[in-house]
Amino acid sequence: MRSGATPKWLGVECCAFHQSLTNAACPNRDYSFFVDDTLLTLAALREGMGLAYLPCFMGDNDARLLRYLAPEPHHDVGLWLLYHPNLRRTKRVRLFREHMLAEMVSQRELFDGLKPRREGRNNLATMSSPEPKRHGRQAAPV
Questions:
Q1: Distance (Å, whole) CA 62 – CA 132
Q2: How far apart are CA 11 and CA 93, in angstroms?
Q3: Is the pTM of this model over 0.85?
Q4: How would you class 6 by CB atoms within 10 Å of its CB: exposed for 0-12, middle for 13-18, buried for 19 or more?
Q5: What is the pLDDT of residues 67-100, one digit of tens each?
Q6: Whole-Å CA distances, 127 to 51, 63, 64, 92, 123
C-alpha cells in the first residue's frame, strides 16, 4: 500500500456484530469487495483485496499475512463449541470437548493474539506467496 493511501476494506455481511466493526473502521463504506464468511475473508486477504478483521489464530498463523492493527479487547467475542443438548453427555462429545479445551489452553497466546509469529511458518495452508500481505484480527491492507 502506498504511504498515505487510504486502505480499502472488505465489506462483511455475515452478522450485525461484524458489520458494525467493519462500518466503524470504514465509515464511508467504500468497500473493495463483500464477504459473508471467515474463510472467504481469509481468501480475499491472501489475494490482497483489502483490509478485514480476522481472528488472530487465523491471521497470525498464515505466513502470507501481516497484522495491520493490534488486537482490541472489545472485538473479542470468545470461541464457542456448540453441540446438540442430547449429545452433551456422550463420551465422544465429552472427550472431544476436553481435547479442544486442552489444545486451546495450550495455545492461548495464539488465540489471544500474543504469540509472536515465526517467519515463514504457516500452519493453515501450504502455498507460499512472494510477499506477505497485512491482516488483522484486526485488518489487512492491499
A1: 9
A2: 36
A3: no
A4: exposed
A5: 888 888 877 777 788 889 999 899 999 999 999 9
A6: 21, 10, 9, 34, 11
Q: What's at 84, amino acid-wise?
A: H
Alpha carbons 119 and 90: distance in angstroms, whole number: 41
Give the C-alpha separation, 87 to 108, whole Å.
27
Q: Which amino acid is at 99?
A: H
Q: What is the pLDDT of residues 117-134, one digit of tens each?
A: 655 444 443 333 334 444
Query: Going by C-beta distance under 8 Å and a sequence separation of 6 or more, which residues neighbour residue 112?
Result: 56, 71
Please give the grid coordinates belonging to residue 124. Answer: 493453515
- For residue 104, give the C-alpha cell: 486451546
Using alpha carbons only, what angle is made at residue 43 by residues 102 and 128, rounded to the nearest 5 degrees?
A: 85
CB 110 within 8 A of CB 121: no
Residue-wise burial string across 129-140, b where 16 or more C-beta atoms lie within 10 A, e elsewhere? eeebbbbbbbbb
- Which amino acid appears at position 88 of this protein? R
Residue 4: which pLDDT band, with cuts at 50, 70 and 90? low
